[in-house]
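User: Here's a chain of 433 residues. Predict its fold as tokens.
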Amino acid sequence: MRMVDLIIKKRDGHELTDEEISFWIEGYTKGEIPDYQSSAMNMAILFRGMSKREIATLTDRMEHSGEVIDLSDIKGVKVDKHSTGGVGDKTTIVLGPMVAACGAKLAKMSGRGLGHTGGTLDKLESIPHMSIAKTKEQMVEQVNDIGLAVIGQTASLVPADKKLYALRDVTGTVESIPLIAASVMSKKLASGTDAILLDVTVGEGAFMKNMNDARELARTMVNIGKSLSRDTVAVLSDMSEPLGMAVGNSLEIKEAIASLHGEGPEDLMELCYTAGSIMLVQAKQAKTREEARKKLHEVIENGEAFNKLLAMVKAQGGDVDYILHPEKFEISKNIIEIRSEQEGYIKEIDALGIGVAAMKLGAGRETLEDTIDMSAGIVLAKKVGGYVKKGDLLCTCYTNKEDYADVLEDIKASYVIVKEEVKALPVIREIID
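Assistant: Prediction complete.
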């Protein structure tokens, strides 16, 4: 078997066999197939696509290219949640404690942020002494004990994806839906979970900019999960404006704490209730989504969800005093208010513009080597559809940098204010199961 023949076969629009996909992934992972041939295959897939069977096989071979984690020692159904990323997305930090308080087992391996999208691990590490480095055995013990763990991915997990993603990033093939789906699902499947809830974000602040592409990606990932015997459901959520009010690491942790006290922004809580109700049914902790939603409301009201966050932070070495007293988090030395220069309704808050601005204020990374300022970021005062008078507060910016004038102009440009009344898009756009 020769790699060049497989490239030509896919280039001409034919399906690859399971054996041919195995040959490619195994050979590339071992270094026997060069980058230039895998680049050519990625481009052929971008233009020609893949069948459901091809995508399932590709995902399976990528999943088994390295360590596959066995979580069978965790009692009960293991559920996991994955988001395709966005601005202000602190969902895991709110949702995880909520579903754990209802009896679900959430063993989650998460990633770091790059560019305008924040990473769950970075947000958690804004809590002093919080450790996201746990062995599999420690994670299993913690999940059996408190029902919840969020840790960093191991280096040995899905090495084929690490190599292929780096290649796609520099060869213009990131946008291929079969390759995106296989990348996401291979990592989720290798993490050892029984059921997967996918939050596929759509809008300017998301990777998928329009509903058709987001729907196709969601359906592709759900099909992969089902073909490989995992209960998989996808929620399509709006990311045309930031999720919640806070963008930035410790700012988002503070918002997550408020949310678990029942004081969360409406859009964030609706996403958590919708996703959580699906996850509780998947975890066999409720028979219907309606029953599950009621349970989730109860654990917010009685404080059990907040107690799960406390328990997780304590189990992972974090200083729980910051969770009990969020005012202890460090505040940036420069706090700048941006106020409306006109009267009207907020038609748009460009999530991408806000995300990039928050990164430039210090809240994110442009490269993996960049150091994050945990206190930096932006807190919105109003959302799309909100009415403002001239001089009303639009948002507050936090930074320890001194050269931020241009960034403030970018933030102002992210707002569109009109005279006509505006209705915000619902945060839940669609559910695919």
